[in-house]
């Protein structure tokens, strides 16, 4: 198996001394995982940041084998990770994607929406420029996973958008992350706390 595609890195965890196992969201192949040799080394460390857009190549001898992954950086979220609110938003968007989606099922609309969301987080001057997009992405995740319902009201001022964000907390916790909510939802709670402080 060999595949090449643009991808968004959504998670990376250490494996051994210098390698990592990463998950990538692609438009054509969905969520895919790969073993990145040297992923924690000096050369690849800036590449293996969740939120980064990369050119991905996966190779495996069989469909049951964890593929070896090579990736080249195309767009970096790194400069915004030193800012607490954008960093919290990027962390949450990537964490929910890596945790909620099944592997090897394509969701091209989710890929495009996540890319647009990350771009907005990195380039908008404040949360007013991306909070509605965050709510839209979370709502789309629920819908794609079969838990759709009434769409939250996302128009209006920042307070209205934040209330829509708050209303999605319970369905995301109970449906998308029912078996692994504690660790992943901590990232959403941290984002919500930062948003609340900003609104006050």
Please, could you describe this protein's structure?
The protein has helices at 84-100, 108-123, 131-144, 158-167, 169-176, 181-199; strands at 2-15, 19-26, 30-36, 53-59, 68-75. It is built from six helices and five strands; from the N terminus they run E-E-E-E-E-H-H-H-H-H-H. With 200 residues, the protein is an alpha+beta fold.
Q: What is the straight-line distance between the termini?
A: 52 Å
State the share of residues found in helices, binned by percent: 40-55%
- Counted by DSSP, the helix tally is 6
List the secondary-structure elements in sequence, H or E: EEEEEHHHHHH
Q: What oligomeric state do the depicted chains represent?
A: single chain
Biggest sheet: strand arrangement? 3-2-1-4-5
Classification by helices and strands: alpha+beta
pLDDT below 50 for ≥5 consecutive residues: which ranges? none
Estimate the mean pLDDT confidence: 92
Can I get a quick summary?
This protein is 42% helix and 22% strand. It is of the alpha+beta class.
Feature tags:
alpha+beta; OB fold (Dihydrolipoamide Acetyltransferase, E2P); 2 domains; 5-stranded antiparallel β-sheet; 5 strands
Write the layout of secondary structure elements.
Layout: E1 2-15, E2 19-26, E3 30-36, E4 53-59, E5 68-75, H1 84-100, H2 108-123, H3 131-144, H4 158-167, H5 169-176, H6 181-199
Antiparallel strand pairs: 1-2, 1-4, 2-3, 4-5
């Amino acid at each position: 198996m060999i595949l090449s595609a643009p991808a968004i890195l959504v998670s990376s965890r250490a494996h051994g001394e210098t390698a990592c196992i990463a998950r990538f969201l692609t438009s054509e192949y969905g969520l895919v995982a790969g073993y990145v040799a040297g992923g924690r080394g000096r050369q690849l460390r800036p590449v293996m940041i969740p939120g980064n857009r990369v050119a991905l190549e996966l190779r495996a001898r069989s469909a049951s084998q964890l593929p070896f992954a090579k990736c080249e950086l195309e767009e970096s979220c790194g400069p915004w990770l030193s800012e607490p609110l954008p960093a919290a938003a990027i962390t949450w968007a990537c964490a929910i994607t890596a945790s909620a989606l099944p592997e090897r099922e394509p969701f091209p609309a989710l890929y495009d929406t996540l890319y647009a969301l990350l771009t907005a987080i990195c380039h908008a001057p404040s949360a007013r420029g991306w909070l509605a997009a965050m709510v839209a992405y979370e709502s789309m995740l629920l819908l794609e996973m079969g838990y759709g319902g009434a769409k939250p009201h996302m128009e209006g001022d920042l307070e209205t958008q934040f209330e829509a964000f708050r209303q999605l907390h319970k369905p995301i916790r109970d449906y998308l992350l029912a078996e692994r909510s504690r660790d992943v939802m901590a990232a959403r709670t941290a984002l919500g706390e930062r948003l609340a402080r900003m609104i006050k």
